Amino acid sequence: MERMSSHMHDYWKDRIATDEYTLLYSDCEEDIPPDEAERIVNDFHEGMPDNNIREYFINQPTIFRDYNHLTIARDPETDSTIGLLGSKWFSSPDITFLYLWTAISVHRVRRKGLLNTLFLWQLEKSIAEKGVPAVIVTKTTNPIVFKAIRSFHSFVPGSRLYPNIDGSGQEAELVKQAHNVVALLCPTLEVKYDTGMILKGMSTLAVNFYPELPTSGDPVIDEYFRKNLTPDDQVLMLVDIPPAVHRSIHALLAHARSSNYKLNGVPV
Questions:
Q1: Is the pTM above the cut of 0.85?
Q2: Rounded to 10 degrees, what is the CA torsion of 116, 207, 165, 197?
Q3: Quick one: DSSP state of residue 142?
Q4: Is 3.40.50.970 the CATH number for 2-258?
Q5: Residue 81: phi, psi to the nearest 5?
Q6: Running DSSP on this structure, what letter comes out for residue 42?
């Protein structure tokens, strides 16, 4: 991994080069220059022409300021934006969590490890700000994102994942956490807590964002999405990280740094 020092917009606070990508990071404490925001959206529109990228960002016009952490990946040869992960902290008297708000990778780099790379570097930034999150949350229509979060969970002994997709019942404590998450994120939407389905969760952001659901390459995950979701819906996911396993998180990130932010080469 090489840390970069060349000129970049002041909005970007850090920049590194991995084996395959150039990564840029922002704490989102400043407004993104309009030309930079337009460039990101245009790059995704070109890299995902069948997806409703523009509506997603138009419907959330302050999103680049509303994130607490934003990481993008650019192709070092073309300098086009090929991946993005934006997250935000949420807190109530009942729960505090890091919400992975937006996770996007263009078609040609899907299932090649980019989302995990973005997530691991951004998790380091988040921990430096507020410590290890007690809960990490996302809601997604993309089984590739589901696979990335499940991979992270599998590398943190003692963490717990919601929802189970193996046909067993959901843990009562995790269902309670899911209720607390929904109360902050999407209190007006209908949720099926036995499966984690958020009905119409995606269509409130962008209609037909995924005209056809992507596939992760994991037959269990892909069948779960095929069986339970339409492109209008989302799956609510959360990883519970008790204090006893915080040391495992730090060990995982130390390993990630030494291996260019890969989870032992697990492609997602």
A1: yes
A2: 120
A3: -
A4: no
A5: -75, 125
A6: H
What does the alpha-carbon distance between residue 15 and residue 170 come to, in Å, rounded to a whole number?
40
Strand 96-105 and strand 135-140: the pairing is: parallel
Q: Please name the amino acid found at residue 15.
A: R
Cα torsion 174, 175, 176, 182: sign: positive
What does the domain layout of the chain look like in residue ranges? 2-258
Residue 191's beta-bridge partner residues? Answer: 198
Distance CA 177, CA 97 (A): 10
- What's the token pair of residue 152? 């992270």
Q: What is the pLDDT of residues 117-157, one digit of tens each?
A: 899 999 999 999 999 999 999 999 889 889 989 988 988 99
Taking a C-beta distance cutoff of 8 angstroms, is the pair 29, 66 a contact?
no
- Cα–Cα separations (whole angstroms), residue 188 to 81, 204, 229, 232: 33, 11, 19, 15
Tell me the CA distances in angstroms from 70 to 112, 122, 155, 167, one per residue in order: 20, 7, 23, 35
The pair phi, psi for residue 72, each rounded to 5°, is -125, 160
Mean pLDDT in residue range 14-23? 88
Structure tokens at 61: 């016009």
- Of 227, 236, 228, nearest to 201 by C-alpha is 236
pLDDT in tens, 83-100: 999 999 999 999 999 999
The position carrying tokens 């995924």 is: 210
The first and second tokens of residue 41, run together, are 């959206």
